[in-house]
Design brief:
- The chain contains 13 helices and ten strands.
- It has helices at 6-9, 12-30, 33-42, 55-66, 80-85, 87-91, 110-122, 163-176, 182-205, 220-235, 274-288, 311-318, 320-332; strands spanning 47-51, 74-77, 98-104, 127-132, 145-149, 212-217, 242-246, 262-267, 293-298, 303-304.
- Helix 9 runs parallel beside helix 12 (311-318) and helix 9 runs parallel beside helix 13 (320-332).
- It is globular.
- 52% of the residues are buried.
């Protein structure tokens, strides 16, 4: 691949992005999804809350916006950053048959620890399912339900979450999308990603870094857009401002963010009528903002990632362009790809040092 700088090639983040297809394929063969589905079923769960911070919270957003409830079960995204700040609001009258699913790459962030403390104090009988990438983290050793530790390769060494995000998301989808043939879909997604990654990387190597970036999508793709925007801001250390929104919501004010040199990425949905609204927006933006660049991501798109016919599952493919672009643009800005904030001490790979305030135990 021409134009691939040694700093990119040798970075942990670049390797972790490209490791994803192999991780998904192998995990689909070894993860006993039926046993976990049966455990959830036996627990007679009515509600599932998906909790996490930052990228780990977006996993819950993707699922809750894209996966219909199974029978009487409803899904809700409750970021741990919200739960820790207002624990009584969420937990003092928590549903009786509630399952809290916690996501965490390290399983040791301040909000992860705060969530576990809040559950213990206010809803100690609530079942938890913890999905993490670190066998040494608090989530991996928490008592109160089940803990799933992903393959070691998912515990990203780089600052940005890449394989950890996608594999935690796919694990949860495998469990809670009970109609899906999870093993087959993981293999198919792995095949599509393996095919797409070299082409996508070449496209971004031939593209100038933008002054700003925008990512929009519908339903679960809106939150894939949110994750995409975060990757750009993280790995550019904020030097490339990035915005995300829903396809229809973007017109309602956020479109004012677009200026000359902005790269706009519209993440395509697999379902109607969402993809029709996305096509309309692309047409509109190309007319209104000729000095910006409006591009599509998805099946038969400018940045083609193919589709298995389900936006919530396709979301792991739709974040691949932003993952790759973020590394390439970070390198062009002269940053340390695996730690863009080195020497600044403003952002760290694992958020820590947040003072957790004492809670009174449930009466």
């Amino acid at each position: 691949m021409t134009g691939l700088d040694d700093a990119i090639r040798h970075s942990s983040t670049w390797r972790e992005i490209h490791a994803q297809p192999g991780i998904w394929r192998a995990w689909g063969q070894t993860f006993d999804v039926e046993a976990t589905r049966q455990w959830v079923s036996d627990a007679k769960i009515d509600q599932v809350w998906f909790c996490g911070a930052g990228t780990s919270a977006y996993i819950g957003d993707v699922i809750a916006s894209g996966l219909p409830g199974s029978g009487p079960v409803t899904f809700r995204s409750v970021p741990s950053t919200d739960l820790v700040a207002r624990p009584e609001y969420y937990l003092e009258n928590a549903p009786e048959n509630l399952l809290i699913v916690n996501f965490g790459r390290s399983g040791n962030s301040s909000e992860t620890l705060g969530t576990l403390q809040a559950i213990a104090a206010l809803a100690p009988d609530t079942l938890t399912l913890n999905i993490t990438c670190n066998p040494e983290g608090a989530l991996a050793h928490h008592e109160g339900g089940q803990n799933i530790v992903l393959p070691a390769a998912c515990h990203d060494a780089g600052f940005a979450m890449t394989s950890s995000f996608s594999t935690m998301l796919l694990t949860a989808l495998a469990i809670f999308d009970r109609t899906a043939d999870a093993g087959r879909q993981l293999r198919q997604l792995a095949d599509y990603a393996e095919t797409a990654l070299p082409t996508l990387a070449s496209q971004f190597l031939g593209m100038d870094a933008p002054s700003r970036a925008v990512f929009v999508g519908s339903g679960p793709m809106a939150f894939a857009a949110r994750e995409s925007a975060l990757k750009v801001m993280e790995l550019s250390a904020g030097q490339i401002p990035a915005l995300w929104d829903s396809t229809l919501g973007f017109r309602h004010g956020p479109k004012s963010f677009v200026s000359s040199g902005t790269a706009i990425f519209v993440l395509r949905s697999a379902e109607r009528p969402a993809h029709m609204y996305e096509a309309d927006l692309v047409e509109e933006l190309r007319v209104q903002f000729p000095q910006a660049t409006t591009m599509t991501v998805g099946a038969d798109a400018d940045f083609s990632t193919n589709s298995i016919g389900s936006s919530v599952w396709d979301s792991v493919l739709s974040v691949l362009p932003a993952q790759l672009a973020s590394v390439i643009w970070s390198n062009r800005l002269g940053l340390n790809i695996d730690d863009p904030f080195v020497g600044q001490s403003t952002l760290t790979r694992v958020v820590s040092g947040v003072r957790l305030h004492t809670l009174e135990a449930a009466r």
